[in-house]
Amino acid sequence: MKASLAIAAIAALAAKASAACWSESQGYPCCSSPNAEVWYTDESGKWGVENNDWCGIPKATACWAADLGYPCCSSTTRVEYTDNSGKWGVENGDWCGIIDGGSSTPDIPDVTPSGEQYTISGNPFSGVEFFINPYYTAEVDGAIAQMSDSSLIAKAEKMKTYSNAIWLDTIKNMQSWLETNLKGAYAQQSGSKKVLTVFVVYDLPGRDCHALASNGELLANDGDLARYKSEYIDVIEGHLKTYNSQPVVLIVEPDSLANLVTNLESTPACADSEKYYLEGHAYLIKKFGVLPHVAMYLDIGHAFWLGWDDNREKAGKVYAKVISSGSPGKVRGFTDNVSNYTPWEDPTLSRGPDTEWNPCPDEKRYLEAMHKDFKAAGISSVYFVSDTSRNGKKVDRKHPGEWCNQTGVGVGARPKASPVSGMDYLDAFYWIKPLGESDGTSDENAERFDGYCGHETAMKPAPEAGQWFQKHFEQGIKNANPPL
Ligand code: BGC
Q1: Are 51 and 71 in the same domain?
Q2: How high is the pLDDT of residue 12?
Q3: Residue 113 Cα to ligand 1 middle (Å)
Q4: Which CATH number goes with the domain that contains 40?
Q5: Is the pTM of this model over 0.85?
Q6: 474 in ligand 1 pocket by Cβ < 6 Å?
Q7: Which one, 107, 159, 209, 230, has least CB within 10 Å?
């Protein structure tokens, strides 16, 4: 048994804790593998034994502070305090964990934005550079630290060169991530070079009403709607107005409106949330939709959700109503396949018993049909951004509606503006849900356990939604299509 006295004495030496090798500060090396056998657990972490001595088992998540209820620092590297868990900085008036070894977490200069108002005209993804999310880069560095296969490491390194969206999934994370990343992108602009940052607005009251895996912090009630408006949307608006000389894309509340199209009758939680989803959208479209440097996309689920004729027709009505409720704010278009696994093209499928008579058995056919139907429903701006972070390889799910951490995942087409010729209404392929961040926990006892994450084709054991999932990442880069 590890002598607690010895730990206390050595801990008193404080020194240089590192998130990757946190046990060094206590005078012990880190174990050579994160999968080392656990012999003992204390408040600093898990301990293994190697060469007849204790070693600290490297933590699976790059953002070690998340386990303690704090965000990781997105820009600061200034150490205010060190304890057994690691180094702490301060951002937005709160503690944040510094991800060590962090050459990949660039120092974001403390700039005050100034510059001319930027106006997006046409496709916001075109003619701009895509900002690389430093948080994801740090997660990938954490993943690489757990790998030994050099060809896999080379693929992982490449992942750091692609952009993906930054999720503002709680008020606290919004406070940590929004301004620092806007600032980071701003600092990279020079002359006519514009740098685009893509954020996911994701904190509606009653979030994820038809599933459990991503239930949010705000509940479907008037008080939480008021908080959504004043503590979340208004704060985002304030920062967007400050950083007005750079392009920004907002992806709005994945899955929410699709739930209003199909799940109001079957799922009481969705009926309870309807009012808040509608009011939330009207409020945010009015605010963000009038900012010239911001383009917004509402989410339309995926082909095996709204692809059927009756669902598409109903969707046209719901989305047209939502967009006009936000007037004079404007919406550029829609996102599909967010966090989902449906292939972009699947020539093996056509309408029939295998597809449950869905005429849109892949995302391409889904967008072709949605484009027609939304235009027919009177929506004037119908452009799409398709999430290709998980659909490079057809996974062997039993039902195409499976959405949780699917075995056989492969990262898909790289983020790119106007990627398909002849489809001028497809603004971009983009990685909206980062590969390697879990879709939901497989722990049956967890509050947010959703049955889908226990299905046969869901990878297990899987951590909570949004947490780092090493196996998902490794499989996704091995199966990348096109290859990395
Ligand atoms: C989770 C969020 C997370 C996002 C990106 C969602 O499924 O609910 O908490 O930020 O995925 O990983």
Answers
A1: no
A2: 26
A3: 29
A4: 3.90.1220.10
A5: no
A6: no
A7: 230
